[in-house]
């Protein structure tokens, strides 16, 4: 099985590995950040549903948390791009 | 009028002119820095590049914004223009400065934090307005394109380094070096300290990296996303994709302009305020 696959492989395998690494890095980072952002907004909805008068104060904290969580994807992206370019 | 501006901006976006000019499309072309006016002083390279021109434009616009909105022909009964200025000032004071800075330092550091907020917002914003500053010409006309100075790591790292230096300078100035550096050591059992203190020092340096990379990668990813989606048409060489590609690119464009540009400026300024504030009044 493996031998047939290897025999059929042609072209630049390193490039393919790099591309897979880049996609995996960004994709896993995005998965984590997706869960995190979902948690932030769900707790925001719950908080506002329980105490609507706190909405103004909570909005600032919500966006702060959103941006801090969202940045996690970009750390993954940056690491992947570094791996893609340097290796 | 507003619709006309929007339509023109869209039209300029849908023409990735670099691709037309070069014959092949590469989204990273946008981020190349060419020396327009070379200035070399010894080992220092102070050449004027695209990013430098955008930064100069950004600082001039920031000053104009501050003067026009907040200094020029003020009335007791504010008009529309003055209301915008007062809203920006209010956000900068109540949402950014008072979040992090203690009241004894707010007079000293509010101008710095508010300037960071306005400046990063303006530089991000002109990054999404098509300008004839790509440095390329097409049949004699300058090519229009979008580029943000904050999508270059040198710019954001310089801004983050300012905050980093001010943080520790203020920490030492208000508390004295002994008390300030002792505040880095948390209350923990002695054997654990050998593990915690290096982490704490690493955390201080990581702040510099996370502050700069957050802004840089956000703007870079936003521009790459828009360019790549429009570039799909040129990579696959079909026009059939155009409705799909332009819709998605416009959606990302609106998301970036409405949410990311403001949020990133807000975050950078707020975190600067929190870092400087926590150095002036350490927890322990």
Report the order of strands and helices of chain A.
Answer: HHH
Separation, N- and C-terminal Cα atoms of chain B? 57 Å
The biggest beta sheet of chain B is recorded as:
2 strands, antiparallel
* Helix/strand order of chain B: HHEEHHHEEHHHH
List low-pLDDT spans of chain B: 17-22
- In angstroms, what separates the terminal alpha carbons of chain A? 29 Å
By DSSP, the count of extended strands of chain A is 0
Report the strand count of chain B.
4
The number of helical runs of chain A is: 3
Judging by the overall fold, what is the CATH architecture of the domain at 33-87 in chain A?
Up-down Bundle
> How does the overall form of chain A come out from the CA principal axes?
elongated
Strand content of chain A is under 5%
Q: What is the fold named in CATH at topology level of the domain at 33-87 in chain A?
A: F1FO ATP Synthase
The value of Rg of chain A in angstroms is 21 Å
Radius of gyration of chain B: 22 Å
What number of domains of chain B? 1
Write a structural description.
The complex is a heterodimer of chains A (87) and B (284). Chain A is mostly helical. Chain A has a domain at 33-87: F1F0 ATP synthase subunit C (F1FO ATP Synthase). Chain A has helices spanning 2-8, 13-50, 55-86. The mean pLDDT of chain A is 86. By secondary structure, chain B is mostly helical. Chain B contains nine helices and four strands; from the N terminus they run ααββαααββαααα. Chain B has a two-stranded antiparallel sheet. In chain B, strands 3-4 form a two-stranded antiparallel sheet. In chain B, helix 4 crosses helix 5 and helix 5 (106-126) runs antiparallel to helix 9 (242-280). The N and C termini of chain B lie far apart (57 Å). The model of chain B is unreliable at 17-22 (pLDDT under 50). Classes of the chains: A mainly alpha (87), B mainly alpha (284).
């Amino acid at each position: 099985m493996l031998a047939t696959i290897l025999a059929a492989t042609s072209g630049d395998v390193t490039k393919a590995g790099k591309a897979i690494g880049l996609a995996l890095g960004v994709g896993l980072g995005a998965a984590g950040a997706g869960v995190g952002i979902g948690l932030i907004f769900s707790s925001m909805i719950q908080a506002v549903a329980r105490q609507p008068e706190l909405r103004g104060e909570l909005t600032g904290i919500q966006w702060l948390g959103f941006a801090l969580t969202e940045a996690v994807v970009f750390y993954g992206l940056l690491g992947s791009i570094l791996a893609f370019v340097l290796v | 009028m507003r619709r006309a501006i929007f339509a023109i901006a869209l039209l300029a976006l849908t023409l990735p002119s670099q691709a037309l000019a070069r014959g092949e499309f590469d989204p990273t072309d946008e981020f190349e820095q060419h020396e327009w006016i070379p200035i070399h002083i010894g080992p220092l390279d102070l050449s004027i590049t695209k990013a430098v021109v955008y930064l100069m434009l950004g600082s001039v616009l920031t000053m104009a914004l501050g003067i026009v909105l907040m200094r020029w022909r003020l009335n007791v009964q504010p008009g529309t223009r003055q209301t915008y200025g007062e809203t920006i000032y209010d956000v900068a004071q109540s949402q950014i400065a008072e979040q992090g800075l203690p009241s004894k330092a707010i007079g000293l550091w509010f101008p710095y934090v508010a300037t960071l907020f306005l400046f990063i917002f303006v530089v991000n914003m002109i990054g999404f307005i098509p300008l004839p500053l790509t440095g390329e010409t097409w049949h004699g006309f300058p090519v229009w394109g979008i580029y943000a100075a904050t999508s270059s790591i040198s710019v954001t790292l310089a801004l983050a380094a300012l905050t980093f230096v001010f943080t520790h300078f203020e920490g030492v100035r208000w508390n004295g070096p002994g008390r300030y550096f002792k505040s880095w050591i948390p209350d923990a059992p002695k054997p654990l300290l050998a593990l915690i203190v290096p982490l704490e020092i690493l955390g201080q340096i990581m702040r510099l990296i996370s502050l700069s990379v957050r802004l840089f990668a956000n703007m870079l990813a936003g521009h790459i996303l828009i360019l790549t989606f429009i570039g799909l048409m040129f990579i696959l060489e079909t026009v059939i994709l155009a409705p799909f590609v332009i819709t998605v690119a416009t959606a990302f464009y609106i998301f970036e302009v409405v949410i990311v540009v403001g949020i990133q400026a807000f975050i950078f300024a707020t975190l600067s305020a929190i870092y400087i504030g926590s150095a002036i009044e350490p927890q322990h």
